[in-house]
Design goal:
76 residues; two-stranded parallel ribbon; 4 helices
Length: 76
C-alpha cells in the first residue's frame, strides 16, 4: 500500500485490479512481494483491499483522481 501511495504522490493516475493471483504475481507489484513461509506471495484479495484503500485515500484526502482498471486475463 505504501508503494501505491508513493505512486499517487508521484502523479500516478491509475492502478490495475487483478482478477487472479497469477495475474498479480506476474505484475510489477506482485513481483515485488515475497513469499511468506509455505505461502506463495501476492494474493489478489489483500492486494485489491489495499488498492481500494489507496483509491479512497487519494480521492478523499488528496482530492486526486485515481482510476482503477481491471486487468484483462491473461494479459497483465
Amino acid at each position: 500500500m505504501k508503494a501505491a501511495q508513493t505512486d499517487v504522490f508521484a502523479g500516478e493516475g491509475g492502478f490495475f485490479i487483478y482478477r487472479t493471483n497469477e495475474q498479480l504475481r506476474a505484475s510489477p507489484y506482485g513481483r515485488a512481494l515475497m513469499a511468506k513461509g509455505n505461502a506463495a506471495a501476492a494474493f489478489v484479495g489483500p492486494y485489491r483491499a489495499a488498492m481500494f484503500k489507496v483509491w479512497e485515500w487519494a480521492m478523499r484526502e488528496r482530492n486526486q483522481m485515481v482510476s482503477l482498471e481491471f486487468a484483462e486475463t491473461p494479459e497483465v
